[in-house]
Each structure stands twice: as C-alpha cells, then as structure tokens.
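B., you asked whether I could sanity-check this one before it goes into the benchmark set. Here's the sequence:
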Amino acid sequence: MRRLSLSVPVTALSFALIMTLPAAMPAQEPASTRIKLTRDSVVGAVHCAPTGKAYAVIHPNGIVDECPLARDTVIDGHALPRGTWIQLNPDAMLTAAWLPRDVELQGLPCKGTGYKGWSVRFHADGHLALCFLSRDAEIDSVPCLGGSFLRELRGSTHVTLDATGRLRSCRLSRAATIDGRAYPKGARINRGGS
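And here's what the prediction gave me:
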C-alpha cells in the first residue's frame, strides 16, 4: 500500500507539470517573409527595387526588414541613393545599409560597393554608428584611415560613432597625439568605449 500512495502524488505532480508547461512556454513569434521582387514595389511605404537573385525580407507586421531602394530616399534624416540595400527594424527605424557607391552620411565619406559589401550601421535613434571611410578623413580632430581591402588585412578600418555623432573609434591615417598620448600611424584609438 505504501508503494501505491507514493506513486499517486508523483503521478499527480507529473500531470500538473505537464498541464502547466505549455502555458509557461512563450508563444512562437511569426516568421519574417522572404520574397524575390521582379519589379519596383511599394512594401510598407518603402519603394523597393527588384532584388535579382537576393530576397527582400518583410517583418511580420508588414514593415520592410530588408530591400534595395527603387529611388533616392531620405530615411531617418539620411539621404540614401537608389540601389541602397536597407535594413529596418520592426518599428521602421534604419539599422543598416549597403550603399551602391560612396555616400556622405552625417558629414562622413562612407564607402559603398553594393549589397553585402561595405556596410554602414545606425544607432536606435537613426544616427550613424559605424561606417568604413571612402578616404582618409579627420573626425573630431582625429586623422582617421579610409577603408580598403588591403588595409582590412592589417586590421579593421571601421569608424564608430557614439549616439551624439562624436568619434568613438578609428584607425589612424597618420601618427598623432590624441588626448595627450602619442599614437603611431595605423593604431586604433578608442574614446569612451569600444
């Protein structure tokens, strides 16, 4: 009898756990939709161009996740040329882009070579967060190195900015003294974080 009385509570407990498990599990979010665009299309208020062999991606709420722009477009204050592949979050804020050519963004010459080439990234508020410079440029009195394939082999040349647009990090285009410290050409400097 004792054996039976022990197994009954275990069975009841197992049943209770099984019955509450589905309620405790988070609901699965709907998946994004991938489609090939064969002609210019308006998707969630964005004018998207044909995607070729790639796919446009649409968030479950109908906002574009990723597509090439069919025409010159201003998004979050950035003038992006036709052919720019954009990435938006579900709130339609710009998170990343691949520029079809070199473009000036927030006063910086950002490198562009097309889809999945040199990328640019944006902060949640839309300000530029990262780009590869198309040429050497001075940012906040710091001489920053432009990006190239050969330079990338020696260490990344990306430039990062904080949310206010101030320089956070870059690789130096020449030797410089920054904040009282001497750095050689090619050194990566970091200000206020990585």
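One thing to flag: The radius of gyration is 25 Å. Otherwise nothing jumped out at me.
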